[in-house]
C-alpha cells in the first residue's frame, strides 16, 4: 500500500535508514495512520462546503467535485507534486499521505517550482476553497459559512504547523522545513541537492 519503510527512498544515497541524520526531522515514509490523519483534518471543510452546495443545487456540488478532482488529481500533481522526491518512487500512482492514489502522468522534476507553477497552485486553492464560500454567502447560509471558515482555517493551521514542517517536498510554497535540515537532506539525496544547488549551494 505504501513504499517499504525499511528501505531508503529512491533518491537517497544511503543503503539503510539506520542512524539517518534527517529521519527525525523529515517524513520520508508514510503509513496508513498518516493518510487517516490527513483525511481527518482535510475532510471537514469539504463535507461542509459540499453540504452548502447541495442545499442550493446538486449541480453546483457536482461541478465542485469535478473541480476538486481535476485540481488535486492532475493539476496539483503536475505543478507541485512532480517536484517531490516521493514522486521518484516506482509505480504509476502516488503513495503519499496528501495525494494518495493520484496518477503519476508526468516525469519527476526535482528542484523549485516556477513562478507560473506557484500562481497555478495558489489559484487552484482559491477556486477549490473559495467556490463554496461564495455560494454560502450568496445563499445566506451563515451558520455553514462560519463553520466552513473555522474548519478550513483549522485544516491549514494543522497542515502548516504539524505536517509541512516535516515534508520533503521543499518546492511546495507551504513547506516549513528548517534550512539546516534541508541542507542535510540534500547531502543525503544528491540528485535532489543538485537540482536545488542555485538556491542552496552545498
Name the features:
mainly alpha, 6 helices, 202 residues, single chain
Question: What does this molecule look like?
Answer:
This protein has 202 residues and is an all-alpha fold. It has one domain. The protein is built from six helices and no strands. Helix 1 (32-56) packs antiparallel against helix 2 and helix 2 (58-79) packs antiparallel against helix 3. The longest helix is centred in the N-terminal third of the chain and has 25 residues, at 32-56.
Short summary of the structure?
With 202 residues, this protein is mainly α. It has helices spanning 32-56, 58-79, 115-138, 142-163, 179-188, 190-195.
Q: Report low-confidence residues grouped into runs of 5 or more.
A: none
Biggest beta sheet summary = none
- Helical proportion, percent range: 40-55%
- The count of domains is 1
Strand content: under 5%
* Form type: elongated
Distance between the termini: 35 Å
**Average of the residue pLDDT scores:** 94
Helix count, per DSSP?
6
- Rg to the nearest angstrom? 18 Å
Number of DSSP strands?
A: 0
Give the topology string: H per helix, E per strand.
HHHHHH
Q: Could you say which structural class the secondary elements and strand pairing correspond to?
A: mainly alpha
